[in-house]
Amino acid sequence: MGGSSFQGKVVLVVGATGGIGAALVHQLLAAGARVIAAARSPERLAMLVSETGQSPQLLVCPTDVRDRLQVGHLLAWAWGRVERIDLAIYCAGIEYLGPLTSIDGKELEEMMATNFYGLFFLVQQLLPLMDKQKEKGTIVWVSSPMARLAFPWASVYAASKAAGDALMTGLRRECWRSGLRLLTLYPGPTATRAGQQLPPERLPRWHEQGQKMRAGRCAELLLRAIAAGQRQRAVTMPLRLLFLLERWLPALSERLCAGMPL
Ligand SMILES: NC(=O)c1ccc[n+]([C@@H]2O[C@H](COP(=O)([O-])OP(=O)(O)OC[C@H]3O[C@@H](n4cnc5c(N)ncnc54)[C@H](OP(=O)(O)O)[C@@H]3O)[C@@H](O)[C@H]2O)c1
């Protein structure tokens, strides 16, 4: 992705109906991109279409990323219509929090399948397509600060996100000479539906307290990092400081993370 503009680019947004994903779609359309939006709920996708005033630049395809075949269908369907994907943003995610003993098998599977397998299904099937393009594409993994900081009551969610981080790092090294670009971005706390399906006793206070940015602001920061081609980037300054602390003063970071209010 060159320079600061998404004008004329074909962008796939997976997880396009959530707080951050929908804001990305709106901003990409406003920047002149052609957008293919995917998520499970056809109703929410229809709402997205109507919010954009039925933009002819927006195509939607209901997809469950936990299913390899559905991800393959999404890519074949998109390719059949636009014959290239300049940028793919994997923003689908699900978050179950709570003490480790409260996470049941279904939640574990759902987090691993949505946050990690789905990413794998996407990149594995997208790479050969992007490889055919004259101008190679960019794949963006919307990770979470939890992948690096793992606050208490978020350990399994953190593990599912950290798996995605490792996949992207390894793949970036594997594709080093290919011209494909693989970026891992870390949004800061953002006000969305994420985690809101949980009963209050499983929502840690650190999740609810503190300032959350608007989804539109988060999308703006993500698009700025993408346009700048930042390989691995925490999009807010407080997060960058926390990552520095984790790297250079791990004992202090450990105490800080362990002390997050529950
Ligand atoms: N909000 C934050 O503070 C924050 C912070 C750091 C990182 N993140 C990450 O940012 C991403 C977006 O989060 P958000 O806060 O915008 O969450 P959100 O509002 O809950 O949106 C999640 C999106 O993922 C889609 N999705 C969930 N399961 C799916 C599946 N199986 N197949 C396809 N799509 C699926 C949802 O649509 P359907 O339900 O219709 O499928 C929705 O579009 C997530 O990866 C999250 O981990 C969020």
UniProtKB/TrEMBL annotation:
Annotated keywords: Oxidoreductase
Gene Ontology cellular component terms for the protein in this record: membrane
Record's keyword annotation contains Oxidoreductase: yes
Pfam family, one: adh_short
GO MF, any single term: oxidoreductase activity
Domain of life: Bacteria
Cited SMART domains: PKS_KR
CDD domains in UniProt: SDR_c (cd05233)
UniProt domain Ketoreductase: residue ranges: 9-192
UniProt cross-references to SUPFAM superfamilies, sorted A to Z: NAD(P)-binding Rossmann-fold domains
Family of the protein in this entry: Belongs to the short-chain dehydrogenases/reductases (SDR) family.
PANTHER family, sorted: DEHYDROGENASE/REDUCTASE SDR FAMILY MEMBER 7B, DEHYDROGENASE_REDUCTASE SDR FAMILY MEMBER 7B
Protein name: Oxidoreductase
Source organism: Thermogemmatispora aurantia
